[in-house]
Design brief:
Blueprint: E1 8-14, H1 22-32, E2 39-45, H2 47-50, H3 57-73, E3 82-85, H4 91-100, H5 105-109, H6 112-120, H7 127-141, E4 147-149, H8 155-172, E5 180-182, H9 215-223, H10 243-256, H11 260-266, H12 272-298, H13 301-330
Parallel strand pairs: 1-2, 2-3, 4-5
Bound molecules: tryptophan (TRP).
Length: 337
């Protein structure tokens, strides 16, 4: 064990503010399982982050557990990955506070997610929404993460995390590893079925396919998917002029492993009326085992509890070490117990 080369650390979180959907799966979670051999992986339910927007408490609790069950069902083996709930590791909130004091008002004001979310929640522009990136920096820096797999929309937060880490290190010496974002190729980016120019999102439920959704509902959503207003009615990859068809092809490619060329050939002369339900079917078959396994796990509360307790214990062990160092560096008196 001692001679084992230390693996690089990878860490990511998803907010349990909505049910996981096909975009989360194809763009992120699906690829996570295979990384455990190469990296030391941490994945967590970012429940503290969800509180920046008003939540229904019972729903938040349900979704947090459901998300854990879904992570596992999507192939994240709890024996090989550290899976935990953010609020169970109190070091996140503690380092979050410290980093707030090293993150500038001007930097936070430039965050596009803050601007978007405050526009959407004009009656609840709270302090947490504004300082959220400092908590996200804490999430990452506590574990000395090398890589942070996120979507393009989180790039700015990752850049800020790097800036804060560098700033802190410049003052106090090498405390934090400066992490790098790990952004998958555009290929895995899933767009809404109702609006193929914006990312698939729970805020447009009709254009969004959830992992736990019933097959008949998935089929209906694909049948109604927006295709393009051209008169061509032909399955051809052209992201610029045919974004709707390109998105469906992208999804089909991701779930079947086929290339765009193969897909064009397969549906040559078929038209959208055949293509759309076929994509729906392929998605249904991909999600079926995930849904069934997640439901089975959700019924086994004791098992889930064991997974997130073990996860929090492992995570705390690492987080504690970093936090202790930080407290010491900034000048807090060491706790005698
Ligand atoms: N901010 C991320 C999002 O909204 C979620 C998140 C919170 C996260 N903490 C993180 C992602 C740390 C990666 C690493 O999607």
């Amino acid at each position: 064990m001692e001679n084992e080369i230390k693996k690089k650390v990878m860490l990511s979180g998803i907010q349990p503010s909505g049910d996981l959907h096909l975009g989360n799966y194809l763009g992120a979670v699906k690829n996570w399982g295979a990384r455990a051999e190469e990296f030391d992986c941490y994945y967590f339910m970012a429940d503290l982050h969800t509180l920046t927007v008003r939540q229904n408490p019972a729903e938040l609790r349900r979704r947090t557990l459901e998300q854990l069950a879904q992570y596992i069902a999507c192939g994240l083996d709890p024996e090989k990955n550290t899976l935990f709930v953010q609020s169970h590791v109190h070091e996140h909130a503690e380092l979050g506070w410290i980093l707030n004091c090293y993150t500038m008002f001007g930097e936070l004001s430039r965050m596009t997610q803050f601007k978007d979310k405050s526009a959407k929640n004009a009656d609840n522009i709270n302090g947490g929404l504004f300082t959220y990136p400092a908590l996200m920096a804490a999430d990452i820096l506590l574990y000395q993460a090398d890589f942070v797999p996120v979507g393009e929309d989180q790039r700015q937060h990752c850049e800020l995390t790097r800036d804060v880490a560098i700033r802190f290190n410049n003052i106090y010496g090498d405390v934090f590893k400066v992490p790098e974002p790990y952004i998958p190729k555009a290929g895995a980016r899933v767009m809404g079925l109702g609006n193929p120019t914006s990312k698939m999102s729970k805020s447009d439920p009709n254009g969004c396919v959830f992992l736990m959704e019933k097959p008949e509902d998935i089929a209906r959503k694909f049948k109604r998917a927006v295709t393009d207003s051209d008169t061509e009615n032909c399955v051809r990859f052209d992201r610029e002029n045919k974004p709707g068809v390109a998105n469906l092809m992208n999804i089909y490619a991701a779930v079947t492993g086929k290339t765009f060329e193969e897909i064009e050939k397969e549906f040559d002369g078929c038209g959208y009326g055949v293509f759309k339900p076929a994509v729906g079917e392929a998605v249904i078959e991909t999600l079926r085992p995930i849904r069934e396994e997640a439901s089975r796990l959700l019924a086994d509360k004791a098992y889930l509890q064991k997974v997130y307790s073990d996860g929090a214990e492992k995570a705390s062990y690492i987080a504690r070490k970093t936090l202790r160092k930080v407290y010491k560096k900034v000048g807090l008196v060491e706790k005698p117990f």
